[in-house]
Amino acid sequence: MASVPHDHSHDHAHDHDHHPLKWTRFFTTTNHKDIGTMYMWFSFAMFLSGGVMALGIRAELFQPGLQVVRPELFNQLTTLHGIVMIFGAIMPAFVGFANWMLPLQLGAPDMAFARMNNWSFWLLPPAAILLIGSFFVPGGAAAGGWTLYPPLSVQAGMGMDMMIFAVHIMGASSIMGSINIITTILNLRAPGMTMMKLPMFAWTWLITAFLLIATMPVLAGAVTMLLTDRHFGTTFFNAAGGGDPVMFQHIFWFFGHPEVYIIALPAFGVVSQIIPTFSRKPLFGYASMVYATASIAILSFIVWAHHMYTTGLPAAGQLYFMYATMLIAVPTAAKIFNWLATMWRGSITLETPMLFCLGFLFLFTMGGFTGLVLSLTPVDIQLHDTYYVVAHFHYVMVAGALFSAFAAVYYWGPKWTGWMYEEKLGKIHFWWSLIAFNITFFPQHFLGLAGMPRRIPDYNMQFENWNAVSSVGAFLFGFAQIFFIVIVIRMIKGKSGIRAAAKPWDGAEGLEWTVPSPAPYHTFETPPVVK
Amino acid sequence: MSATSHAPGKYFVPEPSKWPLVGSFALLLLAFGAVGTMNKLAWGWWTLAAGSAVLLYMLFGWFGQVIKESESKLYGKNVDISFRWSMSWFIFSEVMFFAAFFGALGFARLHSVPDLASIDSKTLWPNFAGSWPTTGPYIDSPFTPMGAWGIPALNTALLLLSGVWLTLSHHAVIAGHRSKAIGWLALTIVFGVVFLGFQVYEYIHAYSALNLKLTSGIFGSTFFMLTGFHGFHVTVGAIMLFVVLIRLMRGHFTPQNHFAFEAAAWYWHFVDVVWLGLFVIVYML
Questions:
Q1: What architecture (CATH level 2) is domain B83-284?
Q2: CB of A215 within 8 Å of any CB in chain B?
Q3: Which residue, of A28, A174, A509, B142, has the fewest CB within 10 Å?
Q4: DSSP annotation of A189
């Protein structure tokens, strides 16, 4: 079995560790573990908020006609669901993992800029206040979709201003966090850890941080132009003054497409850590994984207009963006192949983290394939803004990023808490999530192919059946996540009765498993030597 | 517990600090203040002012602490390398911020304006010629564009020269000639401030004599946003250099160890390069 029941040598490790237990320390902390923990709890709170919005959407769509919410509120819910899940839930979750694990994986005592690290986190609550608060101002929250397209976003009420400033603040948080992560990886590695010995999670975060630094300022520029168009009479996105609403789409998606990989790459990193552990084999094709990650990142800058096939691009532009987009499938497929080859002839066990990674592998690959379908311009012109697109990116975002985030919590949770989670409950959570996820989103492919548009509160009768199924699945999926938090709290409280060993997974590799579980408050104050 | 107590090791982990929280509170106030002000709510200005005050308090406190730590020799060689990486990436992020606005200008000139004058748009805007500069097809408020060879050319010379003075100052720091370094750095700042003065004059001139405003269609939008953000960055750079000047006068820097000086210098050269881009693309072309 992978878990070692009891390890006496580390039982009292934390007693000698001068752990400042007062909860108020979180306000001023410079400890990467504290900050990582805060990121994760914040992420979960936002995940629940965004989830409630999603359930509002699904409740309305359970039946045709208008039953639960007004159309105005429905539009606000779709908009805020997107922004809250992307910027509030998924990104902070992976930044939380990075904070906790990178110093442990690199053999560093902390992040390079421990004080700024805390600012990166504490910028998020003000942004969350702006976003959630915008529901309660006159005119309500932003309602033009998370992509904030003008002219709707120029005409909207003050909720849009709150959205714009929230984006500014979250962008500042991301840029500071990314500078911190890049500097930590480049400069705080333990002696002997060359770049090509980096754990894959560190590699993927290095490249992700680069993407963030390159694109977040562009988003900041885009929303700044929105703001001046709204209040100061500029005409960037107004044809009457020589501007163009489509210009916003170009600038936005120059950020927006790399953003997809900002979310996906750390997920790839997590999976690249977990699959070798439970296959008891080293990662197949490490170097090719690094090159594939870098290729994906570079390609992500030159494919943005595949989100805009129906905005009237010239045919030559559509052709170029179509082929460039399809090119991304090549390095992505290399990754999928490497993960499969890692498992090939491995002695595989199916603990919960591995189950979530396998779920990720199947479902993310499906999301990738529907992405390939959508990359075809003539097909996309049919499917643009239908539920097929919604299904596609939820396979990537939920089954891709979220499932690997769950995997990370089960995989590293014992290191954080000092206790094993309850394997049976974890497995139930996995199967429950997997089935509910597919009930929710698989039928949306059919709805989209049949022509149901996204972002509408009411729909034609012909779409009734699959919408009902999808809504049932959504609520099942939502309850599964309440169950997840129960599992996590039980793990923290040690309800499994199994203390985690320093290395609870016998196939695991890396410096993070050389420190006791729970990891002491301070680790690697003198760097370990990597051979 | 943290590394502050035994210095200077390979690593530096600061003590717990209130400044991040103060900074976040400042941005919360600033954001709500800006929302309130832009929507003409009574509490807007007050919140904005309070946010600015808290932000200033945080900046003084935080940077003050960093300077104190640096003067206490808590930052070793490794920390210095971290600072170099981080400043480089920060400047890269600033480059990408300007790229968004240069991109908007390029898109407008190469695509949206010609498109609005094309045959496809003739039914909507029959009389729009699509020449640059323009207020766009619907805004009827003719203006005179800003010529390149008056103040802007002079400003280019000012910024380029200021970069030279800054390099001379840096060489003096490395050579250990402090008073010389102070002199050249002061001259750098003077040139920067004169540049800003000319920019202010130019803006007043644009509004009063040329009828060139932020609301003058896409030309006014791109012109004022690009030069405005550049001017803001020059202001920030000048403040950085001013802080460095004071630290130089207090003898903070050694020939070997003066990264604050170098960081501010990198930033100054960055705003310099952005200006060259502006001068060529916004003023000349």
A1: Up-down Bundle (1.20)
A2: yes
A3: B142
A4: P
